Amino acid sequence: MKWFVYNLLFGVVWVFLLPGFLMRMCRRGGYRARMGDRFALYPAEILAKIRSANPVPKGGAAKMDSSGHEIAPPLEWVWIHAVSVGEVQVAGQLMREWRKAEPSVRFCFSTTSSTGWKMAEREVTENDVLIYNPLDFPNFVKSALSTIRPRAVILTESEIWPVFIRAAAKRGVPLFLINARVSDRSAPRYKLARGWFKDVFSCFARIFAQSGLDKSRLVAAGAPSDRVEVTGSFKFDVARRNEAKEAELRGWLSGVKTRILLGGSTWPGEDEVLLRIVKTLDDATLVIAPRHFEKADAVEANIRSAGFECVRRSRGDSAPGDPDAKAVYLADTTGELMGLYGISDMVFVGKSLCEHGSQNMIEPCLCGKPTFVGPYTENFRPVMSDLEEGGAIVQVPDEASLAREISRLWGDAAESAALGKRATAAVLRRQGVVAKCISEIRETLA
Q: Phi, psi at residue 229, to the nearest 5°?
């Protein structure tokens, strides 16, 4: 009965969301081009690729499920699902490490958004396939599973699709949840709906949780305790320096003769804070890399209102028009943030001071940069715990504290360097989670 109710509610919600979905589809060609994926209707070239790896068995009648779909033995594909940028990076690292251990492995990568799709295109190889995941309705899910016939399904972080999970389990496909986390907001809801989530979490062969708190929340929601293992965060393994990009960005900033304060993945409100702070620092140039590039015009307006000239990366600017003008550099292009971390002198990580959640603070720490965050870091709770334990990061409650701490370390080269060294060491100590999890997954599948 409860699954009938779920399917009914999902259908009602989908109808309400459909207008917004269609608007996005009109704005972004990728949605329109692969709309059929949502209904397990794949392009001919995708079907040919899937079937070439998973040929239909010859001889004897094929097994059929209750809906009349063929059940063939899973052979090649490992189905991995991720949505957000961070999740896609986690999935990408897992795929890279798995290929080292098993070069013949092939991945079916599914996502739900055009942003996730663009990121996933960088992670898949010519041996893999990239699809949008099916709507979480029984017929579409069963059809997708019958077409792909995965040997395993791997979901990332908090991607819980109940119908898909239960359908895969009924087919005998082992399921794994990697880098699992339960947010502060979701924890009470999971616990309240334990009777419902218990059926879902019991379908997983293994769940790899980021922290002890995440494990306790998963168990409270009905996950079998003996299937949940605390491994730490995959994100420590995802972080990698991009030396080629660092060299390119040094060229862009070659005219800067001062030290660089970087605002990475900033949100509205945080740009203004950094503009006020940089005015108080000696020998400082501010570089802002906003989280959403479509807001770059507003960021430029803030820069000019604060009395600075704006040198904008997307325009091809490389220096202020007036050589005597004080300038702020606006890095509003994709794929360059890690390179910027590598060449900056001090970093503030956005979505942590004026917005809840925070962006990834591991990357600047790996680069050995004194790194600052605001009070809102709930999306990286296990990571923050590890970094704080190693004295590797500075967390502040408000703008005044941020200004004070940046100013203090800006004037103390020895302490600034020591903080950067502790940051790098803290990240390196916690790497190796991905390889460990892959080993355990492969052992389970053997």
A: -120, 135
